[in-house]
């Protein structure tokens, strides 16, 4: 059921992004955040395991599921988003996050955003920065041949999943603005 809900969410998101009507997308996202947890509520399994720890590594559906369905001595949630901007239904989220012993964030900004919505969890939060080995990335960037075509202009490359949260929908507009800036300079 969890995979089906995530697939449904992805399909609805894709359809709404294709529509030029941003308020429809905004409204649908608000409804998902308000009522999505209902779909993740108590799923009965054959055996009730008690785990040492359960980690919800994505806010939203994973957090709702772990909170309501997993029995663990410790529960940890990771929040990777600007919680205040994500349009979560705060009253519902309070009921979800009360089940977690620790709530982790990748940045101070994400933590501050969350706490601005739910300050009662101040004693449960911590920052776990993403570990990036800059030297390794630079070494790998030097290796290889790169692009092999005849194009000699500026290339913009991005790496990430193509989803609304990552802002890929902004790329065409940004490229257009770059072209305008370049035209003004010449």
What does this structure look like?
The structure is a single chain. By secondary structure, this protein is α/β, with parallel strands linked by helices. It has helices at residues 2-18, 22-39, 61-69, 90-97, 108-117, 134-142, 171-185, and strands at 50-56, 71-79, 102-105, 125-127. The protein has a 4-stranded parallel beta sheet. The longest helix is centred in the first third of the chain and has 18 residues, at 22-39. The chain starts with a helix and ends with a helix. The model has no long low-confidence stretch (mean pLDDT 80).
With strands numbered from the N-terminus, the spatial order across the biggest sheet is 1-2-3-4
Order of helices and strands: HHEHEHEHEHH
Radius of gyration: 21 Å
Amount of helix: 40-55%
Q: Please indicate the percent range of residues in DSSP E strands (runs of 2 or more).
A: 5-15%
- Distance between the terminal alpha carbons, to the nearest Å? 56 Å
Sketch the major β-sheet: 4 strands, parallel
Shape: globular
Structural class: alpha/beta
Task: List the total number of helices.
Answer: 7
| Count of beta strands | 4
The poorly predicted ranges are: none
- The pLDDT mean sits at 80
